[in-house]
Amino acid sequence: MDVLRMIRGVIGLACLGIASFACAQQYPATIQTRDYTLKVELLTNQVKNPWSIVWIDTDHALITEKNGGLRLWSKGRLLPNPVQGTPVVNSSGQGGLLDVAVDPDYKQNGWVYLSYSHVIGDQPKGPAMTRIVRGKIKNGAWSDQQVLFQAKPEHYRNGGVHFGCRIVFDSQNHLYFAIGERGNQDDAQRLDRPNGKIHRINRDGSIPKDNPFVGQPGVYESIWCFGNRNPQGLVIDPETGDIWSTEHGPMGGDELNWIRPGVNYGWPIITYGKNYNGTPVGQGITEREGLEQPVKQWTPSPALCGLDIVRGDPFPKWKGNLLAGALKFGEVKRIEIRDHQYVAEEVILKGMGRVRDVVVAPDGSIHVVLNGPDAILKLSRQ
Ligand SMILES: [Ca+2]
Q1: What is the DSSP code string of 212-239?
Q2: Pick from 50, 54, 47, 45: which is nearest to 137 by CA?
Q3: What CATH code would you report for 2-381?
Q4: Distance 51 CA to ligand 1 centre (A)
Q5: Pick from 94, 73, 81, 210: which is nearest to 140 by CA?
Q6: Helix or strand (DSSP H, E) at 374
Q7: CB count, 10 Å around CB of 144?
């Protein structure tokens, strides 16, 4: 048995860097990292364009599919039918049904939170903006929906890029979510626009009175920080309460940011990236007083997407490390942080597909959402 497993592992490792579809049959595989041997198993490949996964408990998870499907994983299998009656999404370009999260008190209240690309009038096409709703799943159907955040109609945008959007909770009943700048880069610096920001609301959608821009005329009072290009990784450290975000740069300049209230993270005034045609962004500067530097920037762009923090029993040496996915580089980075400074990183998975999300399950295992081939992998300790 061990020999067979080793052979499978060797085959799996041999696939690194080769066209990933050729490797789709190679699970389970093993990966040797610096500290641990990882067992890589296929959780499911019966999902289409999966965007995120959230574990309700050790046996149940919810999975979003970009085209609008909300799927339930239950006791070792994917239920064949998606949840009925979920919101209509504009899934053109990068849009669609994005993140799913469950309330920290889910067992008591049953609330499920979704972020998605919404069109006024609930149409599948048209100017869109990221919207946050919550609802409950009853008898396989979406019900009791409440809209928690919706932009003003005049701020909906054409074009299918940069919607964000992850949903996370802190321990004081707040919900944080990010909206990318929707391809309108100057909006990221305007507090009267919702895009290019990380927002904070209460779980019922009301605005916390201590948000940094509350009371200023014309602003979106949900704004927590601004100058963010397209944050697609967001996590709160359960031990320290620190908020971390990864965001896509343009050509180069993907960033890891330590998120604090009222801070301007610089886009598009400062960036380590360039326009896709090679010209400088704006004045082509990387720093300016009053604009926050990233904790770490990566050039060329890995296309960072999905972020979580190692916790639980299986990987004690990695406790508190960040796990960052990357679409373009098709990898998961383990990032060590000390005193809010970047220390080191190790690529712990590569070559199995574009990484859309990285999620630590209640048992401490690491789940990786892949696009192309569409699959969800489970990484545990060998
Ligand atoms: Ca920045």
Answers
A1: TTTT-TTS-TTEEEE--S-EEEEEE-TT
A2: 54
A3: 2.120.10.30
A4: 24
A5: 81
A6: none
A7: 12
Output the CA 194–ligand 1 centroid distance in Å: 17
Which residue in the list 162, 199, 248, 367 is annotated as catalytic? 162
From 159, 105, 157, select the one nearest 131 (Cα to Cα).
157
Lookup: tokens for 60: 């149940």
Domain positions in the chain: 2-381
- Of 50, 117, 113, 110, nearest in space to 78 by CA: 50
Q: Give the CA distances from residue 308 to residues 52, 123, 213, 303, 366, in Å, rounded to whole numbers and listed in that order.
A: 12, 32, 28, 16, 9
Instruction: Tell me, in angstroms, the distance from the centre of ligand 1 to residue 270's CA.
Output: 7
Let me know: does 358 contact 29? Beta carbons within 8 Å.
no
Query: What is the H or E stretch that residue 5 is in?
Result: helix 2-14
Find the 295 Cα to ligand 1 centroid distance in Å. Answer: 9
Is the pTM above the cut of 0.70? yes
Please tell me the distance between residue 255's alpha carbon and the centre of ligand 1 in angstroms. 6
The token pair at 109 is 């209240």
Catalytic residue flag (residue 162): yes
Q: How close is the Cα of 307 to the center of ligand 1, in Å?
A: 17
- Per-residue pLDDT of the chain in tens (382 residues, 90 and over written 9): 333 343 344 333 334 333 344 444 478 999 999 999 999 999 999 999 999 999 999 999 999 999 999 999 999 999 999 999 999 999 999 999 999 999 999 999 999 999 999 999 999 999 999 999 999 999 999 999 999 999 999 999 999 999 999 999 999 999 999 999 999 999 999 999 999 999 999 999 999 999 999 999 999 999 999 999 999 999 999 999 999 999 999 999 999 999 999 999 999 999 999 999 999 999 999 999 999 999 999 999 999 999 999 998 999 999 999 999 999 999 999 999 999 999 999 999 999 999 999 999 999 999 999 999 999 999 999 9
Distance (Å, rounded) from C-alpha 281 to C-alpha 265? 15
